[in-house]
Amino acid sequence: MCRHRLARCRRLLGLGLGLLAGCAPPHPGPGGLPPVVSPGVPARPAPAATWPTAPAGGSRLPAVSALAHRADRALAENRPERAAALVERALDIDPANPWLWYRLARIRLRQGARAQAVELARKARSLAGGDRRLEDLAGRLIREAHRPGLLESGPRDAGTPTGRR
Description:
globular; Serine Threonine Protein Phosphatase 5, Tetratricopeptide repeat; disordered C terminus; mainly alpha; single chain
């Protein structure tokens, strides 16, 4: 148990030092400048969606924000397994962040794990603390997951909980 805590502390320290050293590239927010596109060069596809990493008034931990942005990039590169791993690491740091639970639910739905996506979206709603936007988004995700025929040709439904509670 002590070795587990030491390993986790080392991982967090390394992540923190990386952020302090300026390794994390700046990520424009919703009001940021659009990407520069050269004529004749196809634009890189935008991420499927980007979500805030904390509810309004919640704490914004730099490590969590960096992991969330890296997860967005992984999704944009069509690497949902990597994106899920990054969000799970962020949840290790901030397990009470409902936006991270919602983000993981979106990833699981994209992977075809509808039952798990519903469970994660419900967890996000339970932690939302009156954030109507998040409650609405999570509700939409749940309805989308229950739609007949959704992702029929995709991967099988995992149907098992993520193990996080």
